[in-house]
Design brief:
The protein is an alpha+beta fold. It folds into 3 domains: 191 residues, PurM-like C-terminal domain (Phosphoribosyl-aminoimidazole Synthetase, Chain A, domain 2, Alpha-Beta Complex), CATH 3.90.650; 258 residues, 60s Ribosomal Protein L30, Chain: A (2-Layer Sandwich), CATH 3.30.1330; 182 residues, Alpha-Beta Complex (Phosphoribosyl-aminoimidazole Synthetase, Chain A, domain 2). 34% of the residues lie in helices and 24% in strands. It contains 26 helices and 26 strands. The strands form 4 sheets. The chain has a 7-stranded mixed sheet, with helices on both faces. A 7-stranded mixed sheet has the order 21-23-20-24-22-25-26, sandwiched between helices. A hairpin with a 4-residue loop joins strand 2 and strand 3. The protein is globular, with a radius of gyration of 26 Å.
């Protein structure tokens, strides 16, 4: 019996231990060697991603990446998934997803200041989708609002392939001083390991293993954790205090796998061993077995390594905030994970061996990609009706009904609100600089063309940052994937990671953190390989952002590429229920050059507003910006072409300016194509031979997604 391990893995365990493992050790190996914790299928691809930068302080291997901003300010950020739990129990699944990513930021020593989420659901009209949507959003809002961390940006899309397996990816951003930073390591012979926060119960046992399997029709709800946001708020305040103590060596979140994974991770990073006294863990449930204590994923728990003799200093803070705490271990010289219960050793595992998981490499076979051109019927289209239909589609309409449930202004540092621009902007208190943050997902393009689709995911995210003059400085990613053991699925990995690598290298920014979520499928369907990109940009002068507003009589320009492909577009999906065709390709050099120019134009006060052209195409980009700022437009110089109006060509912006001569000169000097396409007016929207009342556009766009 190999207890769910492959033959190769089982033999490796026997080699490491030089004996057969007991029940406790099997549980420890099972959690640490799960896909969720070990990345044994994706490690060979992840190592290809650029991961260095002059700004980088903490990178891969830590709970979250940390980058230097300016002076002694730093930013931490990471995205993670809670897909399987949200599919089974959407409220608690999404809520604990928020709690977990917040604690990842806390484990760096920094204070969480913003949340972002990327959500994918099935057919919008299905009863299951409505149920999942309402409860996932409610879980995110209840938890985020309760802990006082604003949800300031996000995205949400609907596609049939996510029907059984929704994607719930949550990103958190933290800000602090360089002196606050802590690693998640344990060091110093005899130094103490302390647990604090909530009590340990039976909830979430086996959660990491559950997240590493294909969803079945019946799932065990005990694998789903239960969140307590009010204790999480206490943890935020506690960490903010104790990072000032020089005796604090390391901080670790208790997430997937609980103590069975967190303690060995701390030991590995510090190149030490740890002795864990399992009977010292404060418990919520009576008569918990040692294996249950060890594997529990009860939420709102943290562990720290502190200098021996300084414990009381930390206890005073814990008592002040009224949380449970206990010394549960100590650093030992021998590099082992020793687990004791009532003075009996119940697990004895070499630390290095525990992290020597055999990699998994599968056969790859190229699937039959649907990339043939779609012949749009040659009929006279009413482009005004197409525009209204696209504005009203669930993938393009306003997300106001979603983000109105989030407290996005708590902390009063949010400058651009969700839905108002292409990304959100946060000020740094008492400083002139700030950051822009964005999260973006891409499934449809990647399904059709994994290399170009993954590049598009990165470039679109950075393009959004450029609309507020933000220079991108780092990337976090979430790889959402179906079963990698199937040859047609495994094929996608190589071109996807190559696209991520090439685009990041062109931008000159590193991947600093991330997450991999595999086996996102059910017996009935599988998701598109979906990449979620989170990105932070540095804004030198926040005043550049505060000046950005559309004004009456502004000229409207289309800037960038003037031709491309319509494959994978929302137009084809909405009008013909078709997903296919060639995906538009990105000219890397042109894309980077264009983004840099847009940033320069904003800094030189030559742009009043800029909008990335993405889903829905040029016309949707114009309408979104105008409607949200209560303006209309009179458009001209338009080509009466479906592809030109609604094609999702890359490397394009819509730009508003009242300094036409200077603006055009710079574009010509940099050899960037452009065309003036209109003027800003009040109350009406005119294009080609159509005239629409602004209220009609608003009625189409401002539909409620949640009832």
């Amino acid at each position: 019996m190999n207890f769910g391990f492959s033959e190769k893995e089982w033999n490796k365990i026997l080699e490491i231990l030089k004996r057969e493992p007991n029940e406790i050790e099997i549980g420890i190996f099972r959690l640490n060697w799960s896909e969720h914790c070990s990345y044994k299928t994706t490690k060979i691809f992840l190592k290809e991603l650029p991961n260095s930068s002059d700004r980088l302080i903490l990178g891969f291997g830590e709970n979250a990446g940390v980058l230097r901003l300016k002076d002694d300010y730093v930013v931490a950020f990471k995205v993670e998934s809670h897909n399987h739990p949200s599919a089974v129990e959407p409220f608690n699944g999404s809520a604990t997803g928020v709690g977990g990513i917040v604690r990842d930021i806390l484990a760096t020593g920094l204070r969480p200041v913003a949340l972002l989420d990327s959500l994918r659901f099935g057919n919008y009209n299905s009863q299951r989708t409505r149920y999942l949507l309402e409860n996932v959003v409610r879980g995110i809002s209840v938890y985020g609002n309760s802990i006082g961390v604003p949800t300031i940006a996000g995205e949400i899309y609907f596609e049939e392939c996510y029907e059984d397996n929704p994607l719930v990816n949550v990103m958190c951003v933290g800000i602090g001083k360089i002196s606050d930073i802590r690693s998640s390591k344990a060091q110093g012979l005899g130094n103490k390991i302390i647990i604090f926060g909530n009590l340990t119960g039976r909830d979430g046992i086996g959660g990491a293993a559950f997240a590493s399997e294909v969803l079945s029709d019946e799932e065990d709800l005990s694998a789903i954790q239960i969140g307590d946001p009010f204790t999480e708020k206490l943890l935020i305040e506690i960490i903010s205090e104790i990072v000032k103590f020089k005796e604090l060596i390391g901080i670790q979140d208790l997430g997937a796998g609980g103590l069975s994974t967190a303690i060995p991770e701390m030991a590995k990073k510090g190149n030490v061993g740890i002795k864990l006294y399992l009977d010292k863990v404060p418990l919520r449930a009576k008569d918990m077995k040692p294996i249950e204590i060890l594997l529990s994923e009860s939420q709102e728990r943290m562990i720290i390594c502190v200098e021996s003799g300084s414990e009381e200093k930390f206890f005073e803070v814990f008592r002040k905030w009224n949380v449970h705490y206990s010394i549960i271990g100590e650093v030992i010289e021998e590099k082992k994970f020793l687990v004791l219960y009532n003075d009996e050793i119940i697990a004895d595992i070499p630390i290095d061996g525990l992290f020597d998981v055999p990699l998994r490499i599968y056969e790859a076979r190229k699937p039959n990609l649907n990339i043939k051109n779609f012949e749009i019927p040659k009929i006279d289209y009413d482009c005004s009706e197409i525009l209204l239909k696209l504005l009203n589609s669930e993938n393009l309409c306003s997300r106001f009904s979603i983000y109105e449930q989030y407290d996005y202004m708590v902390g009063i540092d949010t400058i651009i609100e969700p839905g108002y621009g292409d990304c959100s902007v946060l000020r740094i208190k008492n400083e002139k600089f700030g950051i822009a943050v964005k999260i973006d997902g891409n499934g449809r393009y990647i399904y059709l063309d994994p290399y170009e689709g993954s590049k598009i995911a990165v470039y679109e995210c950075s393009r959004n940052l450029s609309t507020v003059s933000a220079l991108p400085i780092g990337i976090t990613d979430n790889i959402n994937f179906p079963n990698p053991e199937i040859e047609e699925n495994y094929y996608y990995f190589e071109p996807i990671f190559r696209g991520l690598r090439d685009s990041a290298n062109k931008l000159g920014i590193p991947f600093i953190s991330g997450n991999v979520s595999l086996y996102n499928e059910s017996k009935k369907n599988k998701i598109y390989p979906t990449i979620t990109i989170g990105m932070v940009g540095f804004i030198e002068d926040i005043d550049d952002v505060l000046k950005l507003r559309i004004k009456e009589n502004d000229s409207i320009y289309l800037v960038g590429k003037m031709e491309g492909e319509i494959g994978g577009s929302e137009f084809l999906k909405v009008l013909f229920n078709y997903v296919g065709g060639p995906v538009d390709k990105v000219d890397d050099d042109f894309e980077v050059r264009l983004q840099k120019l847009i940033i320069s134009l904003i800094k030189n006060n030559l742009i009043n507003w800029a909008k990335d052209v993405s889903e829905g195409g040029f016309m949707i980009a114009i309408c979104e910006a105008l409607i949200n700022q209560n303006f209309g437009a009179k458009l001209f110089n338009l080509k009466p072409s479906i592809e030109w109006l609604f094609g999702e060509w890359q490397s394009r912006y819509v730009v508003w300016t009242n300094k036409n001569e200077e603006f055009e000169k710079l574009l010509k000097d940099h050899q960037i194509p452009f065309i003036e396409v209109g003027k800003v007016v009040k109350n009406s929207f005119e294009f080609l031979n159509y005239k629409l009342d602004l209220e009609k556009l608003k009625n189409a766009y401002f539909r409620s997604l949640i009832y």
